[in-house]
Specification:
Blueprint lengths: L2 H12 L5 H13 L1 H111 L1
Helix pairs in contact: 1-2, 1-3, 2-3
The structure holds zinc ion (ZN).
């Protein structure tokens, strides 16, 4: 086997993806050719670095991703199970909350309404002397005259 053929097949050799015969031929060449053996060693290191990078970077990510997915699934199932209960519980609660909010809002609106009335009363108070003056003065002046 030529060095070039070995180099071309080396990655497959290292990944053990060559046919048995070629695996044997590459191995035999590496045993007899120091250059190719060195090249193979370098490639092996590179591959192992890539493997460890895969292992340290991808796998935890993949693990957490799978874990998150599983947890989401569990949660989704839990929600699906809990939903009818939640609806049954929450609907009357929501209804009474809305009712309370409506009552509260009504009271608040009444409270808001009374200051408005108070201001109108105040303005009436302010207006009363004017009206009194308007009413009484002509009458008084009419009566006095
Ligand atoms: Zn060689």
């Amino acid at each position: 086997m030529k060095c070039k053929t070995v180099h071309n097949n080396l990655i497959f050799f290292l990944e053990k993806e060559l046919p048995v015969l070629e695996m044997k031929q590459v191995q035999e060449h590496l045993d007899t050719c120091p250059d190719c053996a060195l090249f193979a060693e370098e490639m092996k290191k590179t591959l192992s670095i890539l493997e460890t990078e895969k292992a340290t970077e991808n796998n935890p990510f993949l693990y957490t991703r799978i874990k998150a997915k599983l947890e989401n699934q569990e949660e989704a199932e839990r929600i699906q199970v809990a939903r009818p209960i939640l609806i049954r519980v929450l609907q009357p609660v929501a209804f009474s909350v809305l009712l309370l909010l409506g009552i509260y809002g009504g009271i608040k609106m009444g409270n808001v309404g009374s200051p408005v009335q108070e201001t109108s009363v105040l303005s009436d108070d302010e207006m009363i002397p004017f009206w009194n003056g308007m009413d009484s003065e002509p009458i008084e002046s009419f009566l006095l005259k």
